[in-house]
């Protein structure tokens, strides 16, 4: 499930409102509380940072890490740079793009981003890359697994 600007209760001290998030509804690590807030860590949080880049890349990133958000993307619009982090052994590591310039989500197989096209504003190429990822066998297996949950 994709949500935009949803308030997330990570813990008693952190209620961020990521610009976008992806979560697995059944079997994931977050849930919708009775008051319609999201509780727990979504699998992927995405932030668009301009003047908030320092906060997004430090304090907020630390809160997401500490609470187990598996992947975290920050688009720094001012610097025109994208950072995609994956939680590994309780630390965020930066995911690198492959030889084609594509970063592939490890949590959501088939979620592929052509970083160069994204930075250049070539949304047609971004869309085409995503469609290739969605058509991939790993994505189809992931969808089948979710359907069985």
Number of helices: 5
Could you state the oligomeric state of the chains shown? single chain
- Give the C-alpha Rg: 15 Å
Helical coverage, percent range: 25-40%
Query: What gross morphology would you assign?
Result: globular
CATH topology: tt1808, chain A
Content of β-strand: 25-35%
Low-confidence stretches: none
The number of distinct structural domains comes to 1
| The level-1 CATH class | Alpha Beta
Secondary structure class reads alpha+beta
CATH architectural designation: Alpha-Beta Complex
| Number of DSSP E strands | 11
H/E series:
EEEEEEHHEEEEEHHH
Rounded mean pLDDT score = 92
Largest sheet: 6 strands, mixed
Report the span from N to C terminus.
Answer: 14 Å
